[in-house]
Design brief:
- The protein is α/β, with parallel strands linked by helices.
- The chain has one domain: 2,3-Dihydroxybiphenyl 1,2-Dioxygenase, domain 1.
- About 20% of the residues lie in helices and about 40% in strands.
- The chain has helices at about 10-25, 75-85; strands at about 5-10, 30-35, 35-40, 45-50, 65-70, 90-95, 105-110, 115-120.
- The strands form 2 sheets. Strands 1-4-3-2 form a 4-stranded mixed β-sheet, with helices on one face. It has a 4-stranded mixed β-sheet with strand order 5-8-7-6, with helices on one face.
- A hairpin with a 2-residue loop joins strand 2 (about 30-35) and strand 3 (about 35-40).
- The longest helix is centred in the middle third of the chain and has 13 residues, at about 75-85.
- The protein is globular, with a radius of gyration of 14 Å.
- The model has no long low-confidence stretch (mean pLDDT about 95).
């Protein structure tokens, strides 16, 4: 089980605004604010932004991505829309995906630094994990 995840961002203010909008549909709030890091979560900080002002953009096709669970298809759609509206890019529009465990509904986005984030929900009757 994973307790929390941290990602590097080049502009902490921009990324905080971005993730505040993108993570809201998934039920995450900004819970911790520090000079060089921000923590988002539901009950405790599970998703951290770490300021790395000299970082290069994340290279496409690195194979690294983070998937966050959404409660509904509407939350997945809202996550994707918020990302596009706040300076992110689509890396897979909301829709059905096939997996080895069960079909699921998901969307993929790239944040302003190129970090790949997915939101996914398993539909009724196809719950997994």
């Amino acid at each position: 089980m994973i307790d929390h995840i941290s990602i590097a961002v080049s502009d902490l203010d921009r990324s905080t605004d971005f993730y505040r909008a993108v993570l809201a549909p998934l039920g995450f709030d900004l819970l911790v604010e520090r000079p060089a890091t921000m923590g988002f979560g539901k009950r405790y900080s599970e998703f951290w932004l770490n300021h790395r002002p000299d970082m290069a953009p994340v290279a496409g096709g690195t194979g690294v991505h983070i998937c966050l669970r959404a409660r509904t298809k509407d939350a997945v759609v809202a996550f994707h829309a918020a990302a596009i509206e706040h300076g992110g890019r689509s890396d897979g529009a909301p829709g059905m995906r096939d997996a080895s465990t069960a079909p699921y509904f998901a969307a993929f986005i790239l944040d302003p630094d190129g970090n790949k984030i997915e939101a996914a929900t398993f539909l009724a009757g196809n719950q997994s994990g």
